[in-house]
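ingest -> validate -> predict -> emit
validate: passed (alphabet ok, no gaps, 338 aa)
predict: started
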Amino acid sequence: MLHLRFAGSENTFDYFHAAKVYLQEWGKPLAFYSDKHGIFRTTHGSELDRSSGLTQFGRALYELNIDIICANSPQAKGRVERANQTLQDRLVKELRLRDISTIEAANAFAPDFMADFNARFGKEPRNPKDMHRPLADHENLDGALCRKEVRTLTQALTLRYDKVMFILHPTDTAKKLARKKVVVCDYPDGRLEIIHEGIALPYKVFDELRSVHRSAIVENKRLDAALEMVAQMQVGRDLKRSQRAPRRAGQTDHMFGIPDGAQSNGYVKRDRKPGRQAGSVTRREQASTKVAAPEDSSPVKVDLRLTESDKLRIADVVAMLDEYRITPQPTPANEARP
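emit:
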């Protein structure tokens, strides 16, 4: 066993991490032998040639002059599958005996387990020659083991990647690249570079999915319902990256997180206004529970006309609803009559 790594899921960035450590320690093999997982073999090939195209991991190995061989069945990888059965049984018990329950602690224990595993189960090969090759002078592990996508710059020196707008600084080099192609390099450690012919271009970021940080909610009984509805709309907004975006479970400290602007601004949903004691009765509840007046009592006149202050507040709420494009649902009371 040459390398062992625990990860939260099987994703491209974790394979980049594992491949980098393996290549730094042992060198380049002639080929990797794997199954037909989507990380190693593209699943979007044509009907005539399903082996066409490269995945991001396959492209990285191609740049390093390493082939990848995909087995046609799990049984074809007999030795690997038997080792996996051993790891799935023996390693789990070793972790339980040492009270290891986190990925970080398991990765720290992995070198000791590999040394013990190889001492007990390793066998000398028939040919002792080491077939690993050293890295060439022009080969760069960081430059190869990353996600690369090609984008075309606009006339304003901008591009979009994973629903984020990148605006290049108007340097002398960048001004010459309008309508030209650049390469977006998304690294496993969270760094992101925009490169053209080996030159990294400085940029600034505008994230289209960041929640709007509104000001603190003012205590106003006439606007509580509207503000609560707006907050629910912000929470329920579809804040998702592109479907073609990579899974970032194995990537650390990247810029593509989506914070909740409402909660980070201090908004807390409450059931009752501050100062009201539990079990207290509101004026509306008191009015509804009052005993009806006697029949012989004189009628009471109530002035239901709106004041100018009320009209201004209602206009503010209507303007807010129009800004967030809220369409009222038709009800039998306000449906248009034929």
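Residues 146-271 form one domain.
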